[in-house]
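Below is a filled-in request sheet from our internal design queue. Each sheet records the structural input a requester submitted and the sequence that came back. We keep these sheets so that new team members can see what a complete request looks like end to end.

REQUESTER: design group, bay 2
PRIORITY: normal
MODE: inverse folding
CHAIN LENGTH: 246
BACKBONE (tokenized):
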């Protein structure tokens, strides 16, 4: 399963599926930016069992290769030490000056509670969701809020982060953060399951457990300005919007 699949392909979901993103951060890649990644994961009935991610890096080899499998930790190729997420603080409160990643539209979608205001960290928008997840697992970013993105963007990264001691939550339909458990719910060996996985999009929050919990507790879904209008004004706004789409 991957971004390069033909859009009309009707594959049947097998028990085991390889999910591949050959280049995440394509625009970066074609413009000679090193912020991109190659992502591969093996899913069993919708749940990641093993994963690997490759990123360019200014070392002798020219790259880093991170891999993980369930229950065995996260490892960097060529290193004898396990990869670990690094909490920026003992309390979980994000630290100013330490890297974090949030979408540009973040404050239009979420309100920030007072304990978190001014403490979101040093934001970087890299243009590659997989690269951000790699950096969280490696301990170079204190957290990432990333998406909305596809299954192939999130097949490998969450396992790398979890096996490195991190935590992964997903925004549900009400934009409240809940445990991310993959795509195993109602999994069946049919084309409908494969289609759901191909069309799925999600928003994830990844980082050290205390940091993720603190963020989730202090982020509130922001109501749109249209939804906050009184009934008559809301009805008029809806008609104006509908007319503008014709």
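RETURNED SEQUENCE:
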């Amino acid at each position: 399963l991957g971004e390069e699949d033909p859009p009309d392909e009707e594959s049947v979901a097998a028990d085991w599926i390889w999910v591949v993103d050959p280049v995440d951060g394509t625009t970066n890649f074609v413009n000679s930016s090193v912020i991109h990644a190659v992502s591969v994961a093996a899913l069993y009935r919708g749940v990641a069992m093993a994963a690997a991610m490759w990123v360019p890096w200014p070392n002798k080899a020219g790259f880093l290769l991170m891999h993980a499998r369930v229950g065995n930790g996260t490892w960097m190729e060529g290193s004898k030490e396990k990869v670990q997420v690094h909490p920026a603080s003992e309390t979980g409160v994000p630290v100013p000056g330490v890297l974090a990643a949030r979408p540009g539209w973040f404050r239009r979608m979420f309100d920030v509670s007072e304990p978190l205001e001014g403490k979101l960290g040093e934001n970087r928008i890299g243009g590659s969701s997989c690269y951000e997840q790699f950096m969280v697992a490696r301990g170079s970013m204190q957290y990432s809020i990333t998406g909305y993105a596809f299954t192939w963007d999130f097949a490998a990264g969450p396992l790398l982060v979890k096996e490195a001691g991190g935590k992964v939550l997903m925004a549900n339909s009400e934009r409240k953060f809940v445990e991310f458990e993959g795509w195993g719910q109602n999994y069946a060996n049919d084309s409908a399951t494969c289609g759901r996985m191909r069309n799925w999009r999600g928003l994830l929050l990844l980082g050290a457990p205390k940091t993720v919990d603190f963020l989730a507790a202090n982020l509130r879904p922001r109501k749109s300005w249209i939804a906050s209008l009184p009934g008559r004004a809301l009805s008029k706004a809806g008609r104006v919007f509908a007319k503008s789409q014709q």
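SHEET NOTES:
- The first helix runs from residue 26 to 30.
- The radius of gyration is 19 Å.
FILED BY: M.R.
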